[in-house]
Amino acid sequence: MNAYQQVQSSGILWAASAQPPKYQACQERPTRPQTREGATLFESREAQMAESAARHEGALAEVRKHYALPADSSVRDFLTEHRALPYLLLEALPQLKATFGASTIFSLRAPTDDDGSRTLYAVVMWPGKSRDVRQALARFDDSWWIAHSGQASGYLTFTYELT
C-alpha cells in the first residue's frame, strides 16, 4: 500500500492572477543620507582615540622612569593590552616608596606561564632580610593594595626578590 499521493499540495490553489508580485529590477537601492553630523561624530571619535593613545604613551614613559623594565617588549606589550595597569602602577608608586624606601628599585616582568597566560609582576628588589621584606609587603598589602587590587583584574602581582 502506498501512503503517499502522487500529487501533493498545500491545499491552497493560487489563481494565476492572485500570485504575489515578483521582484522588479526597477526598484531603487536604499541609500544612507550623508550628513555633516555623522562626519563630525567620526572626526570626534578619531580625536578621542588619538588623545587616548597619547595619554597611554605618556603613562608608559612615566612607568619607565620609575620601574626597571626588561630589554624585550613583553612588559610594554602587556601594559598596552591592559591599559589600566600603567595608571595603577603610577598610583601605587608613592605607597611603594613609603613602605619599602625611596631608594628601593622596582622592576616589572611579564612572563608567560606553561598554560600560555601572563601576569605582570611588580618586583621589589630587596637587599635586606627576607623577614623584613615580607613584613613590608604585608604592610603594603594592608594599607594600599587590597583596596586597589580590583582595578588590576588579577593581572598584577606585587612580590619581592632578595638581592
Tell me what the structure shows.
The structure is a single chain. By secondary structure, the chain is an alpha+beta fold. It has helices spanning 36-66, 74-81, 85-100, 130-148, and strands spanning 105-109, 120-126, 156-162. It has a three-stranded mixed beta sheet. Helix 4 links the parallel strand 2 (120-126) and strand 3. Helix 1 (36-66) runs parallel beside helix 3 (85-100) and helix 3 (85-100) packs across helix 4 (130-148). The chain is elongated, with a radius of gyration of 32 Å. The model has no long low-confidence stretch (mean pLDDT 86).
Quick rundown:
With 163 residues, this protein is α+β, with helices and mostly antiparallel strands.
Q: Helix and strand string, N-terminal first?
A: HHHEEHE
- Major sheet: arrangement of strands: 1-2-3
Tell me the fraction of residues in β-strands, as a range. Answer: 5-15%
Q: Compute the separation of the termini in Å.
A: 93 Å
Q: Tally the helices.
A: 4
Uncertain runs:
none
How many whole angstroms does the radius of gyration measure? 32 Å
Taking the sheet with the most strands, its summary is:
3 strands, mixed
Q: Can you tell me the overall shape?
A: elongated
Which range best describes the helical content: under 10%, 10-25%, 25-40%, 40-55%, 55-70% or over 70%? 40-55%
Structural class: alpha+beta
Average residue pLDDT: 86
Q: Work out the number of β strands.
A: 3
